[in-house]
Protein 1
Amino acid sequence: MKTIIKLFLLVLVVTTACTYNPRAGLEEETSTRGKIRIGVDESYTLLADAELAVFQSMYENAHITPLYKPEIDVINDFLNDSVRLIILSRKLTDEENAYFESRKIFPKTVTIAYDAVAFILNKNNKDSLLRYTDIKGIFEGTVSNWRQINPARNAPIKVVFDNNKSSTVRYIVEKFKLNNKLPSYCYAVEKNEEVINYVEKHTNAIGVIGVTWISDRDDSVAKGFLKRIRVAAISSQDNPDGNDFYRPYQGFIADKSYPFIREVYIINRESFTGLGTGFTQWVASDQGQRIVLKMGLVPATMPIRLIKTKKSF
């Protein structure tokens, strides 16, 4: 009997030793499980919130904390290893790619959507149809008074951006090749909400914001903003003096009639199939792209159907 008991204990010890896992109790990160932080350009706060809400409701062990910041700060966090995934409206520069390559890191870039830069006006501003040449002149410094757009109106133009480190500032500077210098009547606040507050209170103001803040007409935040301001319609860049004007609506972004369109990217530096990779794949999948479509943006990885309707302004 004692021999049998000793043999049983020996088998138990051997079995336990063979199945011992030093990582027992620790949760291994996968494409749908883990805990990470990501950097998000503030322009895409509503889009990221919507994508994350659905993704994390489907995968209850996925915990993603978004850090919403101006574009420059998002890039700095990415370079400083504070985040391993970012959402923004530009690709990495050659210098930034070289920095990562020197560290044997090779970030992957996926286009997830097409959005636009919107120009918003005070509710009492009747000059809501602006020619592309007017917008160009405003940022080049040759159009500084509303009378240059409408001779019956004499008032200085004031332009307000969301932040001096934002993607909208960079986009306008690059679009019109301004050598990093904006006219003196251009100002910056801190956030997109503050741009809308400023435009609501100043009749002569033009606000420059990412269209996601006003594109989802079912979203309570976007609906609230649209009640307080007007969205300018701009003539085509190819026919700047024509009589066709386009607001940053989904169809006009898709067919490129609206002249201020951007691409939205996810850039992921993971070297393994982690949670960041899983989230990227999900956003680029049919489910994630349907959220992009619902937000009033144009999906990048799924076909869309355009229905031609009569434009009315």
Protein 2
Amino acid sequence: MAIYLTLAVTFFNFVGASAARVVLTLYALELGAPASAVGLLGGLLFLFPLLLSWPVGALADRAGARGLLLFAAVCGAASLALPYFVRALPAFYIAAALNGLALAFYHVTLQNLIGILSRPEDRARNFSNFSVTGAMTNFAGPLLAGFSIDNLGHATACLVIASQSVVAIVLLLVWGRLFPPGNPQATLDAGASHALADREVWRMLIVSGLVQLGTDLFQFYLPIYGHSIGLSASAIGTVLATFAVAAFVVRLFLARLVKRVPGETLLAWVFFTGAIGFALVPFSGNAAVLGMIAFFFGLGMGIGIPLTVILMFSRSAEGRSGQTLGLRLTANNFVRVTGPIVFGAIGSAFGLPAVFWIIAAIMASGGLLSRPRAGRVTK
């Protein structure tokens, strides 16, 4: 029952978060916000996840999940209620920061909860279900935002999306005591020292960051490349949809794959698939070929993020899993902030094809780094 409650809370919180990014951006533009203001809104959405994922993970180990998730859900609801009542740009900045604060708390807490509630033999299946739920929200959230805006207007759409967090609050108030309590003995300093002293944790942080880098940059630069060869917006959207479909499909089989193939061997396949996908993009000249490349890319990279969560959890010390997963999210959010800036400069200096080939080389290096080595046990 606790697993199903976790997945339900995941669904409503993540739908609210993905919808909030759409409605806050479009609402701000509707009110006349300049592009620089919209960019600042986007940055504020990831500010707290970057700064707080590690300490929130440690707090989840000590305090348990229920209170943290309630706090996150309240922040999520407040972040969307504020623009309804205060229709001014400063309110949107506060709303974006609140939404990012909610994300910082519930993302690492929910990931950790899935691992804690799972027996070792069920862990891959439960993380697979968690990742599939996340993929569903990436589809449902923007859809909810778009239809709400078109039919009800931007302001009322904010309340519709806030209702998703309200549903999560009700679920947590009624059934939240099903979640296990925390461990007050799990102090921040001890957990941090243990995690940072583990070479395998450092290696997994690098590998996880590279997976996030490859996934984000593919979705960021593919539309730019599509535009450069004259594709329409609908064609570019269709190409990106093929990646999402492939990622959703392959995540349905993640649990079976993990049982049959060692985790690090599977992770190497993820990287090599990503490398091939990036390397092929500059040679394609139409939407059909790009769609096939995107689908192939999704079949590999689509399981990269949930797979690194599974491997990271398996390497965490007893009672320190939240902090270890928080470290992972900190590394990933750092990459999400800096990656587009760095590769934007590379693209300006050397051209767009060079970006894809350089990232392909980085993905291939990630595959070599993640391969099982003699004498090291894989999980």
Protein 3
Amino acid sequence: MSETKNAEPIRILFLGDIVGEPGRQAVIENLADIRARHQIDFVIVNGENSAGGKGITSKISIDLLRAGAAVITTGDHVWDQQEIVNYFPTEPRLLRPINYPDGTPGNGSVVLGTEKCKVGVIQAQGRSFIQPPLDNPFIIVENEIDRLNEQGVKVIVLDFHAETTSEKIAMGRMLDGKATLVVGTHTHVQTADETIFPGGTGYLTDAGMCGPEESVLGRCVESVVWRFRTGMPTRFPIAKGAVKLCGVIVAADPSTGKCLEIERFALTVN
């Protein structure tokens, strides 16, 4: 399908960090309805906490893709499940941070075609108060966007998995006019600062999580509170109960890549 100035906007849904079985089951069971209700063309989900809150497995990746996710991003817990190391080279739609050294299994970006346009997705990890320390994401992401532009890719989404708001905002500002959407992950708390920057880049500091609503970042309240009260080590089991799915929806011009609309997404399911 040829791209024209008056092409119908492409609608993209990004869902924040999926936490454990409750989060992934809620995404899998509700994604088709969400796509239909919001007329979504392309879905990206962050799956780095989907395996018991620690990493992702090949089976979970396959289940999420079959449910309708086009791309799965990760973050600092990407290698928590050992089996995923060998799975990465077989599934280009599962991304690890692009700023890992050359030779690391998997890829940090992917381009997929849709009926409306090609969509590029990049995953990067920040460096402030987050482990492991990786190469400078600002330089690597900018270079990767230039490479994608040379291939004719206009619609580009960056999942920036980072701890500090300043690092995320700086990345968004640097990429204004170069990326369609810069969305943060990692903190599991949805921020209320969705905006379209002057150059046409949609931005949200953190998409939030897809996990149990009555929890501390998806974990059992009592365990986390006990740890803070006593300072003693303990396990943090995944919480139970209703799940809140959080993320962001954008509409973009396929011919320019500019973000036309942005809205936070939140849905509580039992």
